[in-house]
Design goal:
Chain B: Pfam families: Fer4_8 (PF13183), LUD_dom (PF02589), LutB_C (PF11870). Chain B: InterPro entries: 4Fe4S_Fe-S-bd (IPR017896), 4Fe4S_Fe_S_CS (IPR017900), FTHF_cligase-like_sf (IPR024185), Helical_ferredxn (IPR009051), LUD_dom (IPR003741), LutB/LldF (IPR004452), LutB_C (IPR024569), NagB/RpiA_transferase-like (IPR037171). The complex is a heterodimer. Chain A is an alpha/beta fold. Chain A has a single domain (35-190), classed as Rossmann fold, CATH 3.40.50. Helix content of chain A is 23%, strand content 21%. Chain B is an alpha/beta fold. Chain B has a domain at 452-519. Chain B is built from 23 helices and ten strands. Chain B has a six-stranded parallel beta sheet, with helices on both faces. The longest helix of chain B has 24 residues, at 81-104. Chain B is globular and about 85 Å long. The chains are: A alpha/beta, B alpha/beta. Strand 8 (159-163) of chain A pairs antiparallel with strand 9 (331-335) of chain B.
């Protein structure tokens, strides 16, 4: 008998007694009287992210990363100097200082942004870059993770990741360090999606 | 409000630390753009003073075919007070952070009930859900393998790596790969394995197992890490600054990641509906391991299945809040298929899980989502350190998982508990952990897998406890209480309570029953 058949036979033979129906999932309310942008930004900051309420991308980049040499952009709003479409292997992106991508949506409850494979072009850029800048349309924020998981992206993309703040560790004595293995900072810029783009 | 009801306060006005000497004003940890101290991830909610260096207490001594002596190792941990205090404080802080998150979500108890119910449903229909997961994953272009046990898992992974001529594998933390002895096997076949989680890398370089399923090096002080890194990575032995140590690890690991032939991750959840698996980390190291090399292998225990994508809206809300008191991990990544030009393999591993499914008293332990909340709250775990258990899984969840792998070797572990039930209360999937610990004691006693002294004690105690009249008569006086127990149980070195230099507690002068009779149930108590 193959391992597959042996395991399936064993879990069926050992099926626990009793009736265990699959529950319906309710949507629990999320209290946000002044809209979702404010709680999104507050929760993002608590997770070590940096929220930017708007402004021109060029100016934000110049102010935040004046030393940046290699900027990889996956958005039409900014033209970087590293073309992600021309990358032959992910490790070619090891020298990227700043990457700019657009999130599909944000989650107010946690301050998370969803970055799917199509938005990254090369998945690894979101982790190999030193800093990550994410554009998010203010009207693309859902209240909680429950609503987030009802979205179609999880049925569509081969890869999609919630980023909530930058790469972080506190494995040594509980002291918080940003930039453990991935990006050292994560900025989310509120930026409406241009119609037609 | 009377003074006695006020919680104790530390100098900064916050609730007192367990160990006041760990108080400090600033730990140099990351701050937000407004300058406020941040405490997401596994960071402490308040800065703690780094204890002065002290030799690190090591874990349980392991002997072939001999039961692990948890008591002996725990004693050595307690005898290293700086390590023991920091450990106790950090884990209790995680527990308190978890409570804070719980209070912020009015639906917390509903979510726990849903999580438990979804897992029970999945486990009782596991065959169907495994088949659905497999067919979806295959349709998405993922190669799916099945392993009956750890050895088969290791052979399968070795085979995949050999097919690709892979010499170096980068991996993120996975308790399953610890369970199956993966790194030792790979070393024996000449494949280099590099752990990419900071805590796990520290443990790998120090040739220790992870001491906690979420924070693997929580038992170490910064001075211990500086020693390990100086020895293994050539860092400055005199520099134990945490920023320096973390940056050194980043700089030394990055080239290994860039040049790796293959990457490996575990999975927190596997979704039958879509063939997706989900990996949660704070460092982003799983995403590097999966997305940089051309080959990604994921090892997944068969109990990780959940039916629907929407179920993640329950589990992701509970996982990091329970584990770290942080609302979500920095990264929650959903893998549904290989990227263009990449190859993705899944190994579904049984290794004793299907057998446990058939044990009426223990199958619900398979609901575990490996958050570690039970460890953080456990007074025995916090004071003894994870390595004192000498097993892959430590703390309360370890007490009920480990004996199913090796009854004799882990026969003493179910006794490393006060049965206070706190583990059960914090469990996000409502596993009756303390009841299962007690059930394991019975099983081990009945199958004679525990030592004769523990058996004799349980027999004597069991006889007395099951006869209320005899019990009350026996404890009627302090002397009676001592008479009840044979001498070898109270004053003999075999009694692990008194053997460590502790005295038996003074018995009360009057029992509850005597007091009740004398005062007519408290009504005639002289004031």
């Amino acid at each position: 008998m193959s391992a597959r058949d042996a395991i399936l036979a064993a879990v069926r033979a050992n099926r626990p007694q009793g009736d265990h129906p699959l529950p319906e999932l309710p949507i629990f309310p999320f209290a946000a009287e002044g809209g979702l942008v404010e709680p999104f930004l507050r929760n993002l900051e608590a997770m070590g992210g940096h929220g930017v309420e708007g402004g021109d991308i060029e100016g934000i980049l110049r102010a935040q990363f004046p030393q940046a040499n290699v900027i990889a952009s996956a958005v039409p709003e900014y033209r970087g100097n590293r073309d992600l479409a021309q990358v032959s292997a992910p490790n070619d992106l090891a020298d990227v200082d700043v990457a700019i991508v657009r999130a599909e949506f944000g989650v107010a409850e946690t301050g998370s942004v969803l970055l799917p494979d199509t938005a990254l072009t090369v998945n690894a850029v979101a982790y190999l870059a030193q800093h990550l800048v994410v554009l998010l349309a203010p009207d693309a924020i859902v209240p909680t993770l429950q609503e987030a998981y009802r979205r179609p992206e999880f049925h569509r993309h081969r890869y999609a990741s919630f980023h909530t703040g930058p790469s972080a560790t506190a494995d040594i004595e509980g002291v918080l360090i940003h930039g453990a293995q991935g990006v050292r900072s994560l900025s989310v810029v509120m930026c409406p999606l241009k119609t037609g783009s | 409000m009377s003074g006695s009801e006020e919680p104790r306060r530390a100098e900064d006005g916050l609730p007192a630390l367990l160990h006041e000497d760990l108080h400090t004003a600033d730990d140099g940890g990351a701050r937000g753009s407004g300058g406020e101290r941040l405490s997401h991830g596994e960071a402490t909610s308040r800065p703690l003073q780094p204890p002065a260096p002290e030799p690190q207490p090591r874990g349980a001594k392991l002997y072939h075919r001999k039961p692990v002596d948890h008591n002996e190792a725990a004693q050595r941990f307690i005898d290293a007070p700086r390590h023991a205090k920091m450990h106790d404080e950090r884990l209790w802080d995680l527990r308190q952070k978890r409570d804070g998150q719980m209070h912020g979500l009015p639906e917390w108890e509903d979510l726990r009930e849903l999580a438990s119910t979804i897992k029970q449903h999945t486990l009782s229909n596991l065959g169907d859900y495994l088949e659905q997961f497999e067919s979806q994953a295959k349709a998405n272009g993922i190669h799916v393998h099945w392993a009956r046990d750890g050895a088969e898992h290791n052979r399968i992974v070795h085979g995949i790596l050999a097919d690709h001529g892979a010499r170096r594998l980068i991996k993120s933390k996975s308790m399953l790969t610890e369970e199956v002895g993966f790194r030792d096997y790979m070393a024996s076949v000449g494949i280099e394995v590099v752990e990419t989680d900071l805590g796990e890398r520290i443990q790998q370089l120090d040739e220790e197992a992870p001491s906690h399923i979420v924070v693997p090096a929580v038992h170490k002080l910064r001075s211990d890490v500086a020693d390990v890194f100086a020895r293994e990575l050539g860092t400055d032995p005199a520099n134990d600054d945490v920023h320096y140590l973390a940056e050194q690890q980043r700089e030394k690991t990055r080239p290994l990641i860039l040049e790796a032939d293959a990457g490996m991750t575990g999975a927190n959840f596997a979704v039958a509906e879509t063939g997706t698996f989900v990996v949660c980390t704070n460092e982003g190291n799983a995403d590097l391991s999966a997305n940089v090399p051309p080959l990604h292998i994921a090892s997944i225990g068969i109990e990780k299945l959940i039916p629907r994508i929407t179920d993640l809206g329950v589990f992701i809300r509970l996982l990091s809040r329970s584990a770290l008191g942080s609302p979500i991990t920095q990264y929650t990544s959903h893998f549904r298929g290989p990227r263009d030009g990449g190859e993705m393999h899944i190994v579904l591993v049984d290794n004793g899980r299907s057998a446990r499914l058939g044990e009426p008293e223990f199958w619900q332990s398979l609901k575990c989502i490996r958050c570690g909340a039970c460890m953080n709250t456990c007074p025995v775990y916090r004071r003894s350190g994870g390595l004192s258990y000498g097993a892959t899984y430590s703390g309360p969840i370890g007490l009920i998982l480990d004996p199913s792998f090796d009854r004799r070797r882990y026969s003493s572990l179910p006794f490393a508990s006060t049965l206070n039930g706190s583990c059960t209360n914090v469990c996000p999937v409502k596993i009756n952990i303390h009841e299962q610990i007690f059930a394991w004691r019975k099983v081990l006693a009945e199958s004679h897998d525990i030592g004769w002294s523990k058996q004799a004690m349980m027999k004597a105690a069991g006889t007395v406890l099951s006869h209320p009249t005899l019990y009350r008569a026996s404890i009627a006086t302090a002397e009676g209480a001592l008479k009840l127990l044979p001498d070898f149980m109270v004053a003999n070195p075999l009694n692990s309570w008194t053997a460590r230099g502790r005295a038996m507690p003074d018995a009360p002068k009057e029992t509850f029953h005597q007091w009740y009779e004398r005062t007519n149930g408290g009504k005639e108590e002289p004031s």
